[in-house]
Write a structure and sequence with these properties.
- The protein is mainly α.
- The protein has one domain.
- The chain is built from 5 helices and no strands.
Length: 184
Amino acid sequence: MAKLSSAAWIAHDVGLATAIGGTMFGREALEPALDEISDRHQRAQVSNVAWRRFSWLNLAGHVAVAATWFVGRSMLSGRAVSKTARTLTLAKDGLIVASLATGLASMILGRVLGSRTAHNAAIATNSSGTSDAYGPAHDRLRTAVGTLGIANLAANIGIVGVTAALSMEASQSLPFSVVSRRLP
């Protein structure tokens, strides 16, 4: 059981690392770097391809986090945990649900945005060099994807914090320490 629990914990942590690291890289490095590409169509195309590729890794990371947590949770009765551990466990449940919901919504809306952006960028520009194809609907979709991305990042960072607190709680309680070995 210990080897299976260790493997689950590793999968859980790698999933979180993927979700957090990939999102931070995309937001803070990839997207700003794309501004170096002057052609709007090419910039949109590169962004779309990069985020589409990452979205599958991100989805796998989210599934790994949720699956390992909820499978491990199903193996515990809750009798061996302290009140603090119970509260932290419920908080982690909520954060994982929030992470999944915002991660999936961000992926779906991001794909819609990517398709629309690539299509709009391909439309001929007007005489002033700006595209008439982008408008308020595009801006709202872009804002929604950005907001969901930030919410997802916050949920995933919250999961890291609660996981660390649960680990510390387990080290202080012998019964919980023994039972929590099943949790990632």
